[in-house]
């Protein structure tokens, strides 16, 4: 019987220890649940913006807007290509030189002005000012060359126009 009491005592001690472990685990579960609830509240607060919308919904809207902006950017690039193609046919290069055609007349009242398009086609307009008369000459320019003889001033204005550095470059689409 003594032997039986020891076994019964051992079972009781084992059951007590198991019960104590279960109570400790239950207390640990309760503590963890409270922490999870607190974290969940912080997460919910963090994931809402000032209007009450969730950050996830806001991100979806922003991504959709970015896709719309990409389409707009593509259209802008196409329009820019069209504008640059048309611009090649517009006058956009200018060379201008003022000079004295005659020694006895001052103030640089004579001039040579060259106007070219994107293909270096255009004209050179020159005016020679004298005391008793003024003359204006126009000479065609084809592919950067004049088919007629040119004065030094006309050549200088043509050279200025040909070396114009204000070219419009397209924005690269990366």
TrEMBL record:
UniProt keyword annotation of Transmembrane helix present: yes
Superkingdom, natural source: Bacteria
Protein name: DUF4446 domain-containing protein
Cited Pfam families: DUF4446
Alphabetically ordered keywords of this record: Membrane, Transmembrane, Transmembrane helix
Transmembrane segments: 12-32
InterPro entries listed in its UniProt record: DUF4446 (IPR027981)
């Amino acid at each position: 019987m003594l032997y039986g009491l020891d076994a019964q005592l051992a079972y009781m001690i084992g059951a007590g220890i198991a019960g104590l472990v279960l109570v400790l685990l239950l207390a640990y579960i309760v503590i963890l649940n409270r922490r999870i609830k607190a974290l969940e509240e912080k997460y919910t607060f963090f994931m809402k913006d000032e209007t009450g919308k969730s950050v996830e919904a806001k991100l979806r809207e922003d991504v959709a807007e970015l896709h719309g902006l990409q389409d707009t950017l593509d259209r802008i690039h196409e329009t820019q290509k069209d504008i640059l193609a048309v611009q090649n046919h517009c006058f956009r290069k200018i060379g201008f030189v003022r000079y004295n055609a005659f020694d006895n007349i001052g103030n640089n009242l004579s001039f040579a002005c060259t106007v070219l398009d994107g293909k270096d086609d255009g004209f050179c307009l020159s005016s020679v000012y004298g005391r008793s008369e003024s003359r204006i000459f126009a000479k065609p320019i084809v592919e950067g060359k004049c088919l007629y003889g040119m004065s030094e001033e006309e050549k200088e204005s043509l050279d200025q126009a040909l070396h114009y550095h204000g070219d419009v470059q397209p924005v690269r689409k990366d």
